[in-house]
Write a structure and sequence with these properties.
Spore Coat Polysaccharide Biosynthesis Protein SpsA, Chain A; seven-stranded mixed β-sheet; 12 helices; binds guanosine-5'-diphosphate; binds magnesium ion
Length: about 400
């Protein structure tokens, strides 16, 4: 039984304090320790909060649960709505993060705030089926599984209603890529609906990337030994209110995450995104160079214009994609751009110097060129991540 006690000093005799012990209350909430934390990442989900809490309370009757909402300071005031409900329901908590964005990081912080043995993750938009949560919990509690995943692909209809045809194809492709990297057989390794023993997240937390949408894939890929997984079919519903936050950045981020895992965590996801943007910059450079030549401009002028255009598009794309969470605006965008150009200029010198050095020791011109490009890219990434973003 849990009691709330207060110890107070009531007097002093011969240099010793005399204390009193008071029983304040036998709090029924404190008497039952929480066994399940449901983490709910939110961004602009104001109108979904009340129905979700109602549905959770109904589905989780008889279970000692708490809901940890992690909101990234949504402009629509989602956090205020959650806090208004938390004020009269001790099972609800709102972690409000300011100056940060990111689904994976939000889920991770919510999970790390939990003291319960089991952590569930569910979207706020009512697309996931909360009535599956008790079955997930039962499978973890019985020891049958360490990880329970809600799968959109095990029902006969698949994610018919919840996704557009484009998203459906993208989701299937994301799953194929994930399954190629993971050593476990899972039908929906990028699901946002799952439950896990808390210890399994805590042990791999330092290895998880804060960027991205696909934290489940990251958690599975980061486990030292393959976890025992049980999947639960559910029908992926249509979003009830608000809009999806899935966009092109999420796709680039996901490809970066896959590559990070393929390189055994050697290269950070952000670096791989930076490198992908850089490759895009090469395409921009060649296109502008080609157009300049076609317009009859001198080669040197065309090359100069192409280099400046590629550098500018690289800066803008990195600012809005790779570093979206630290995006520069206004005057900072201008000063950041000037710094970016200066640092990439140094990167170019490093590129040529390293390529020259390698070329002196090997007749393989392509190896020298690649070594120069890699060191230039590494310099650009490290220096701009410190001095620009
Ligand atoms: N805290 C936080 N939550 C987010 C962020 N992006 C998306 N979410 C939440 O994550 C869940 C899934 O996002 P959603 O846009 O529905 O993705 P979709 O179902 O793949 O279209 C929803 O509850 C969103 O509110 C973010 O940057 N920060
Ligand atoms: Mg959704």
């Amino acid at each position: 039984m849990t009691l709330l006690l207060e110890i107070s000093v009531v007097g002093e005799r011969a240099g010793r304090y005399i204390g009193a012990l008071t029983i304040l209350e036998r709090d029924p909430v404190l008497m039952q320790s929480c066994e399940l934390t449901v983490v709910i990442p939110t961004y602009n989900e104001r109108d979904n909060i009340a129905p979700l809490i109602q549905r959770l309370a109904h589905a989780l009757k008889g279970i000692a649960w708490q809901a940890v909402f992690v909101d990234d300071n949504s402009p629509d005031g989602t956090a205020d709505t959650i806090k208004a409900m938390a004020a009269c329901d001790p099972r609800i908590l709102c972690l409000k993060r300011v100056g940060r964005r990111g689904l994976a990081g939000a889920v991770l912080e919510g999970a790390l705030a939990s003291a319960a043995p089991f952590v569930g993750v569910i979207d706020a938009d009512l697309q996931h089926d909360e009535t599956v949560l008790p079955q997930m919990l039962a499978s973890l509690k019985s020891g049958e599984a360490d990880l329970a995943i809600g799968s959109r692909f095990l029902t006969s209809s698949g994610p018919e209603k919840g996704l557009t045809p484009f998203r459906k194809a993208g989701s299937r492709l994301a799953n194929i890529l994930a399954r190629a990297v993971l050593k476990v057989e899972v039908s929906d390794p990028v699901s946002g609906f799952f439950m896990i023993r808390r210890g399994l997240i805590e042990t791999v937390a330092p290895d998880l990337t804060n960027d991205g949408f696909k934290i489940l894939f990251d958690i599975i890929a980061s486990q030292r030994s393959p976890p025992r997984i049980r999947e639960f079919p559910y029908v992926f519903a249509e979003r009830q209110a608000g809009h999806s936050k899935m966009d092109e950045r999420v796709i680039i981020e996901y490809l970066g995450l896959i590559l990070t895992k393929l390189t055994g965590n050697l290269l950070p996801t952000r670096f791989l995104m930076f490198a992908m943007v850089g490759l895009g910059g090469v395409a921009v450079h060649m296109a502008v160079l080609y157009s300049g030549r076609a317009a009859g401009l001198h080669f040197i002028i065309s090359q100069g214009v192409a280099a400046m255009t590629a550098m500018t598009t690289n800066f803008l794309v990195n600012n809005s994609v790779t570093y979206r969470d630290r995006r520069l605006r206004g005057m900072k965008l201008l000063t950041g751009y000037l710094r970016f150009c200066a640092l990439c200029g140094v990167g170019l010198i490093a590129n040529v110097a390293v390529a020259n050095l390698v070329h002196e020791h090997t007749p393989l011109w392509w190896l020298a060129g690649a070594a120069g490009a890699a060191s230039g890219a590494a310099w650009n990434y490290v220096s701009t991540s410190v001095a620009v973003w």
